[in-house]
Amino acid sequence: MAIPDAKVPIVRFVDPSTRIACDMNIQHTLGIYNSMLIKSYLEIDERVGEFLALLKHFAKNHKIHDASVGYLSSYAYNLMGIVFLQQQNEAILPRLQSMEARPRLYNEQGKTRKKMPDFGTCKVYNCSFDNRISAYKSYGFLNKKTVGQLLFEFFEYFSRRFDYRTMEVSALSGRIQERQVWEQ
To answer: Strands 175-178 and 167-170: what pairing?
Structure first.
């Protein structure tokens, strides 16, 4: 099914073998980089995939995840979840889009890592991110929280502590911060 009101051309379908709902954008390369970014985060910590899937499942079941009718998109929920995991006291995910992001100097055995090559880039949009995923494989090992604990904290934070009038989730900086006010 085509989504005619979407900002970019979208085709929505359900994979008949897995029954997974999919959105595919047409002639818009940013979607490819967005998917690569999410895939990279999924590869860093095994909790991320389950956490994001449960978050999407919750949003779908409560009918609050359709950008075409004014709710957040699945991608926006993914970014909220990723930034939340980056904001943990013991971060589970690095800030791959931040040029200041660097792999931890040690792995889960406490051994020093080798120097890694620099960031990957794209030419059309500012969508570069650190794609040296193997350097981040053990990034969140100090955080021992379960997916259930993280999900509970996510809902508690965004329902009670996040001020929607003054705060924003910045996927680019990987932070929850005061909303930027731009002069006109």
So the answer is: antiparallel
Angstrom distance (rounded) from CA 156 to CA 83: 15
Instruction: Kindly state the DSSP code that residue 134 receives in the 8-state scheme.
Output: G
Contact 175, 93 (CB under 8 A): no
Amino acid identity of residue 169, one-letter, is V
CB 44 within 8 A of CB 94: yes
Q: What is the model's pLDDT at position 119?
A: 42
Q: Which residue has 């990279």 as its token pair?
A: 40
C-alpha to C-alpha distance for 14 and 30, rounded to whole angstroms: 22
For residue 155, give the 3-state DSSP assignment.
helix
Do the Cβ atoms of 82 and 171 come closer than 8 Å? Answer: yes
List 2's β-bridge partners, or say none: 11
Which region among 6-15, 38-47, 74-83 has the lowest average model confidence (pLDDT)? 6-15
What sign does the dihedral 96-99-100-103 (CA atoms) show? positive
Q: Angle CA(157)–CA(161)–CA(163) in degrees, nearest 5?
A: 120
pLDDT digits (tens, 9 = 90+) for 135-154: 898 899 999 999 999 999 99
Distance CA 56, CA 110 (A): 35
Do residues 141 and 108 touch, judged by C-beta distance below 8 A? yes
- 46-61 and 147-156 helices, crossing angle to 10°: 50
